[in-house]
Design brief:
This protein is mostly helical. Helix content is 68%, strand content 5%. It is built from eleven helices and four strands. It has a four-stranded antiparallel β-sheet.
Length: 330
Amino acid sequence: MYRRGGWGFFPFIFIFFAFGIVGDILGGAFNILFALMQLAIPALVIYFIYSAIKSANNESTSQNTYSSRRSSRVRRKDTTTTVTNNNQKKIDAALSDYFAKNDKMLITDNIYFANKNNQFVSYDKMQVFYYDEEICTLKELSSAYPDLYTEIMVLLNKFAKKGYEPQKETKKDSKEKQATKPKQTVKPKSKADTFIDQIQNLNDNIENVDITNGLNQTCDLLKRIELVDKEDGKEDEKLNKLYEYYLPILTGILDDYKRLSSSPIKGEDFKKCETQLIKTLNLINQALVTIAESLHDNDYMNLNADMSTLESLLKKDGYTESPFKENKNG
């Protein structure tokens, strides 16, 4: 007799077990894939190191040497033992000298050899680094990756025989600092400094003591004027005339005087010009003194005005006696 619903639980049970099995299969596959990825990453690192060291060997070796090395790599066990026994002392001596002056031996920008605590012991205790991550020592590398170890030993033998030159480490930090370091700009000379230099150059080798002393006084006054001008920071019409008219005329006069004084013929006219130049220097120095003192005229006026205002306010508020107050006893 047919019963309704006899298949009711079977589809559910089938689907449950079916998906459970599939889930286990997928989960196991992902676990295997994850494990393979973990194994693949160090394998890729070793491959990159092997390629870099092999490339370094090829750069310093001819095609014939490459062929012989390739055949020696087929007889890996014999070659490695021979290299280690015969040349270990030479390699260690060369590396000891190298690491006395360097912290690492660069193979490429990202692959290098270094020592623990920067203390060289022997070549097999050196550590291999990839992107600043320690991979292993050369001794550990010899059993796990014999081909790579053979290439390294070939490279170290060349280094011991001065047939291989390690790369020099580029100091990126210093380059960046130089790039970011602002360029030092040379400040332009002030007008006063420019004329002081000209006058001092013209004053060289002048035999007349009065002219020399007068020009030295001119330079000293210009220095004082420049100091006051820097403190004030305002444009002054008197200084504009000084730098645009007075001093250019003076330097022109001095230039002509120096030219005439170097002439082998000096008559009465030269002596008259020399006497007139001394008077001119006295006049220009007097003018410089007047200009220097007048630079503070506005400051004195403002100061007097402020003091008068304060005095008036104090008198108005009754804090001081007025000079016009009547004398009660009079």
